[in-house]
Design brief:
There is one protein chain. With about 80 residues, the protein is an alpha+beta fold. It has helices at about 15-20, 65-75, and strands at about 10, 30-35, 40-45, 50, 60. It has a five-stranded antiparallel sheet with strand order 1-5-4-3-2, with no helix packed on it. The two termini are about 15 Å apart.
Length: about 80
């Protein structure tokens, strides 16, 4: 992720998929609607939704579902993940 772009955009799509979901680190993604240069997808574990525009990067469409969000926040409190929700 390019730190100048904030927490809701990733310019390096290959690195995004290598690292896994920024919320739960799962590498299982479910493909959703797509067309043209855009593909929507969802993390198979936490439910966070993203839009991949290939050359233009990946945008966050929605954060994890409530149950996972609570797990992420608990992990952050223990010093685990440092991704901001």
């Amino acid at each position: 992720m390019n730190k100048n772009e904030g927490v809701d955009h990733w310019s390096d799509t290959e690195k995004f998929f290598e690292d896994g979901c920024p919320f739960c680190k799962s590498k299982e993604f479910l493909e959703g609607p797509h067309g043209g240069l855009s593909i929507n997808f969802k993390c198979g574990k936490c439910g966070a939704r993203f839009n991949c525009m290939h050359l233009f990067g990946i945008d966050l469409l929605s954060e994890p579902e409530t149950e996972c969000k609570n797990i992420v926040e608990a992990s952050q409190a223990k010093g685990g993940m440092n991704y901001e929700l």
